[in-house]
Write a structure and sequence with these properties.
This protein is an alpha+beta fold. The protein is 33% helix and 27% strand. The strands form two sheets. The chain has an eight-stranded mixed β-sheet with strand order 1-2-8-7-6-3-4-5, sandwiched between helices. Strands 9-10-16-15-14-11-12-13 form an eight-stranded mixed β-sheet, with helices on both faces. A hairpin with a 3-residue loop joins strand 14 (248-252) and strand 15 (256-260).
Length: 300
């Protein structure tokens, strides 16, 4: 079984009150349940899949207390959540695009957002990251994303303080990510589950040709990617052989973090319902750099 065993929570110096944590041997589930148990009125959860038993049980308890529970998952994973006996209503999207976003909103004031699904694998075994924001403004944005995903609508870029958010599909998101990568002067670090976008790869290669250090770790899923040989040559990019790298994050020059539910893939930008965040924060960037260094070390 693939497993990652390091976890920590660090306060991040941004305008919205926030913390970030990385998955380990079960601490992620406890943190998410703690947030859920603070709910008094409403929980909205969107995820590709939901099968973590403690989270389902917590939502069942909240439902019995009168808290309104709204859950939206991808139609391909419905059986997995029903195997856990939910007592709340579960909705699914029937379009060909995947519901691949991963977030929850509690009482219109707390947002949990990250790279992992609310599943046993994502939270207890794989390498993932989550941020917890206490911000009514961010909560309103994510609730709007929930409605847009539910109804099949699109949204433009939204800036909140030092953060920029995109709801995919969005070519604007792809262009902005590539633009941020191309601005690199010293270093780009990343962890990525699926890397199949040739334009993103070209941006990394261009930066490397200018002397920018490119350091990354990718999941073994990429064995079948036509880009793998190009990814692992001419740059310091390695493949994990012992843990599932489910991360979807770039760090540029130790100051800009690009993260969310979207892989560096054509379907991530152009088809699936994803959320991408670009955050300017040296403190946050350093935490992800430390995380990537750990992943590279333990996945050898």
């Amino acid at each position: 079984m693939k497993r990652i065993i390091l976890a920590f929570v660090v306060l991040i110096a941004i305008v919205a009150s926030a913390s970030v944590f990385f998955t380990d041997d079960g601490g992620a589930v406890e943190r998410i349940v703690d947030v859920l148990e603070s709910a008094e009125e409403e929980v909205v959860l969107v995820s590709y899949s939901l099968d973590e038993q403690e989270i389902v049980a917590c939502l069942n308890r909240l439902q019995k207390k009168g808290v309104k529970i709204s859950v939206l998952i991808d139609s391909s994973t419905v059986s997995r959540v029903f195997d856990k006996s939910p007592e709340f209503t579960v909705s699914s999207d029937m379009s060909t695009a995947l519901v691949h976003s991963k977030f929850l909103v509690v009482d219109r004031r707390i947002v949990v957002f990250g790279t992992g699904n609310f599943t046993e694998g994502s939270l207890r075994e794989d390498s993932n990251s989550f941020m917890i924001f206490e911000s009514a403004r961010l909560a309103a944005l994510f609730l709007d994303y929930y409605r847009a995903i539910e109804t099949g609508n699109s949204r433009g870029m939204t800036r909140i303080e030092n953060m920029v958010f995109f709801l995919c599909p969005s070519e604007e998101a792809r262009k902005r990510v590539i633009s941020e990568l191309m601005k690199a002067r010293k270093e780009i670090r990343f962890g990525m589950f699926a890397f199949t976008d040739p334009q993103v790869l070209a941006a990394l290669k261009f930066c490397a040709s200018k002397g920018v250090r490119i350091v990354g770790v990718i999941d073994s899923w990429n064995d079948d990617s036509p880009l793998k040989d190009y990814l692992t040559s001419g740059m310091e990019v390695s493949e994990s052989t012992s843990i599932t790298v489910h991360d979807k994050t770039f760090v540029v020059d130790g100051r800009v973090v690009i993260t969310g539910s979207a892989n560096a893939s054509l379907s991530g930008w152009g088809k699936n319902r994803e959320i991408v965040a670009i955050i300017e924060s040296r403190d946050l960037a350093q935490e992800f750099v430390n995380h990537f260094e750990y992943i590279r070390e333990v996945s050898k």
